[in-house]
Design brief:
With about 375 residues, the chain is mainly beta. About 10% of the residues lie in helices and about 30% in strands. The protein contains 5 helices and 20 strands. Strands 2, 3, 4, 5, 6, 7, 8, 9 and 10 form a 9-stranded mixed beta sheet that branches. Strands 1, 11, 12, 13 and 14 form a 5-stranded antiparallel beta sheet that branches. It starts with a strand and ends with a strand. About 25% of the residues are buried.
Length: about 375
């Protein structure tokens, strides 16, 4: 098999639990009710160790992490310098911005937004992103056993109280607890998947284009194709084709519909000197068997049933060998990524995987080197 690959957010599958994506233009005229959203921001801060674990591959020993430890610190934030912006999934989208009081309270009315996927962000005075609002649901764990996260929830009631929103600027998250989202009567106000009609199906070939607006600080646009051929591009290239495939499954707990998304590129055109705009990502998907990418056991751990895909419901089969185009050397591959020809410029230490529970209480799969590689650890 060719060395093509799929990229999956959140490990393998992105589950749009309780919500769908935007409607197609033909469905945009469907009636919806205005949504009144309220809550209270509360400043929190993740410890340096927990923050480090979220942004690093952690290819270090546990002893090296000790300087990053310590108790959770409080954070003083001037909420009046921030705003909350929410954008609907309509085509075109509708954006509404509301102020935040010094006590952290906010409230805004989003037109025709009931039962529609909604993306909300906390912005600073200059309009730059401070944090993305996410809904954490401990009742539906992700594949690492942590609470699942939804960045575009839909709400089923005209009046929705989010409760306390934990604003953590160190990890750029504004965290809402799923169980505390209620309507005026105190009932759950998170829309089920069935309430979101005609969710958008992006299946097909898409072409990368650069943005037509000013990017926030620290962000970069897509690379030019000429830059990619020199090996100096470390991201998507203008004109590069992508193939998106929507997966549809069932939530094993309540049989509701959930969605996943595969993102494919043609790896053969991603090498130095190749033209990434000439790739065929659909052919790459077919070459890899057009599988869901998950065994039934793995899907069950994520709370998803993909059995409707029949023989296509399974893991990918990876190549057993690869030939490097520059040297012509052929290497055998084990476990999908271990090359028989791999060497190191430095002395090798005893390294291995380790499960670490961070100070934020979440489990991290890390890679450590040294005498403390065996078993689990709590830091």
């Amino acid at each position: 098999m060719k060395s093509n690959y799929a990229i999956f957010a959140a490990g393998i599958l992105v589950l749009a639990m309780g919500s769908g994506c935007g409607k197609k233009a033909a469905d945009a005229a469907a009636a919806s009710t205005d949504l009144t959203l309220s809550g209270t921001m509360s400043a929190t801060a993740t410890s340096s160790l927990a923050r480090y674990a979220r942004v690093s591959s952690l290819r270090v020993g546990i002893d090296d992490l000790l300087p990053y430890g310590g108790a959770l610190s409080s954070a003083a934030i001037d909420f009046t310098a921030l705003t909350l912006s929410c954008v609907t999934s309509d085509i075109p989208p509708v954006a509404v911005t509301g102020v935040i009081t010094s006590a952290g309270k906010f409230g805004l009315i989003v037109p025709s937004a009931v039962n529609k996927a909604l993306t909300c962000s906390v912005l600073d005075a200059g309009g730059d992103l401070v944090a993305s609002m996410i809904v954490q649901n401990a009742a539906v764990p992700d594949m690492n056993g942590n609470p699942s996260v939804n960045g575009s929830p839909a709400f089923s009631s005209e009046t929705v109280a989010l409760g306390t929103v934990s604003l953590d600027t160190t990890i750029a998250d504004a965290i809402v607890t799923h169980s505390q989202i209620v309507d005026g009567s105190g009932a759950s106000a998170v829309a089920g998947a069935a309430a979101v009609t005609a969710p958008f199906d992006p299946t097909g070939t898409w072409t990368v284009a650069d943005v037509d607006f000013t990017l926030s600080k620290g962000e970069e646009g897509a690379c030019a194709a000429s830059t990619a051929r020199t090996g100096k591009c470390h991201g998507p290239t203008v004109g590069m084709p992508l193939y998106l495939k929507r997966l549809v499954g069932k939530n094993v707990s309540d049989n509701s519909t959930v969605y996943g998304l595969q993102l494919w590129v043609d790896e053969s055109k991603m090498q130095d000197g190749q033209d990434p705009t000439a790739g065929d990502p659909h052919a790459a998907m077919v070459a890899c068997g057009d599988m869901t990418g998950m065994t039934s056991a793995d899907a069950a751990k994520a709370g998803v049933d993909l059995s409707s895909y029949g023989t296509k419901n399974g893991a990918f089969t990876f190549s057993s060998s690869a030939t490097f185009p520059r040297s012509g050397v052929t290497a055998t591959i084990t476990d999908g990524y271990k090359l028989s020809t791999a060497t190191s410029e430095h002395d090798m230490q005893a390294c291995g995987p380790k499960a670490v529970t961070g100070l934020d209480g979440l489990s991290k799969n890390v890679f450590v080197c040294g005498p403390d590689t065996a078993g689990a650890a709590k830091c």
